[in-house]
Design a protein that fits this description.
about 300 residues, alpha+beta, Nuclear Transport Factor 2, Chain: A, Butyryl-CoA Dehydrogenase, subunit A, domain 3
Length: about 300
């Protein structure tokens, strides 16, 4: 085996870890793959004899690439009013496959990813690397061009935002299924009162229909308003089938076998507290929706 083959083998050993870092940093599967590929390009042009800890070096490079991508994304989004819903990871309702499980380590639900989208790029990097991957602040500091103390403050601010915004979901999947089943049954029946009964009074609905749609990102708050919105789309409820969306119970809606929407539910205290809907046709086509083969 020559040096190039050995290096490729070492990179493949770390690929799953790097993709997990990039997904948590970016909330986009396509961009995560781009970041990992860029890391490989940089590794292939580097004198590896000078690298003492290859996994640490690769993680740092991937983080730098993601930071640049986040900064570029932030500047682009300042020019528009649209809000971006992260890419969901969809699995069969009977269990998450090993590849998806690696991406979802640390319980990265859609609700958490939505909160991470509100952080500054440096805050997000510090929080993800320290709180999710246990990277010391001494190693994070050079990536964000700050002192270790300043990097610690970045992560602390991010942590307060996460703890103050992200709901803690019920972990019992069977209980989640009962609540989501009740929601779907009520939507199919057009039963407004039954819908309100399974919704938290402060429930939040986010629907991302893509940049091509007028009002690309809708956000609706309150049980009554969310129930009204659910009734508007009741005709699609019959096409909804259970799936796991970022490890939690969700719904894939596919009339005629064509994906129409992926719905991620956050259930806490036996009520739906958040409902995130990706209905952007272009992004749906890019997702791994092998679960549809079982529908």
């Amino acid at each position: 085996m020559d040096d190039k083959d050995w290096l490729a083998g070492q990179f493949d050993t770390n690929r799953t870890h790097l993709r997990s870092v990039a997904y948590k940093m970016l909330g986009s599967l396509a961009e995560a793959d781009d970041a990992v590929q860029e890391t490989w390009f940089r590794l292939s042009r580097t004198n590896t004899a000078e690298i003492e800890n290859l996994t640490g070096w690769l993680t740092t490079v991937t983080a730098r690439v993601c930071l640049n991508m986040l900064r570029s994304r932030a500047s682009r989004r300042e020019e528009s009013l649209s809000v971006h819903l992260p890419d969901p990871i969809v699995s069969n309702e009977n269990g998450v496959d090993p590849e998806h499980q690696a991406l979802l380590a640390d319980s990265v639900g859609l609700a958490l990813l939505v909160v991470l989208e509100t952080l500054t790029p440096a805050e997000r990097l510090a929080f993800v690397l320290h709180d999710m991957f246990a990277m010391p602040f001494e190693d994070i500091a050079p990536i964000v061009d700050r002192s270790p103390a300043a990097a610690r403050q970045l992560a602390s601010r991010a942590r307060r935002r996460v703890q103050g915004s992200a709901a803690t979901p019920d972990v019992d999947l069977s209980r989640q299924r009962e609540v989501v089943d009740a929601f779907i049954a009520a939507a199919r029946a057009g039963d407004f009162e039954a819908l309100v009964a399974v919704l938290d009074p402060d429930v939040v609905l986010r629907a991302d229909r893509g940049a091509a749609a007028a009002g690309a990102m809708d956000e609706v708050r309150g049980a009554s308003a969310v129930a009204q919105r659910a009734l508007m789309f009741a005709r699609f409820a019959e096409y909804g089938r259970m799936a796991l969306v970022n490890g939690a119970v969700g719904i894939v809606t596919a009339p005629g076998g064509e994906p129409f929407a992926v719905m991620g539910f956050t259930v806490a205290g036996g009520k739906i507290v958040e409902l995130d809907v990706l209905a952007d046709p272009e992004r749906l086509r890019q997702l791994d929706l092998a679960v549809l083969d079982d529908l």
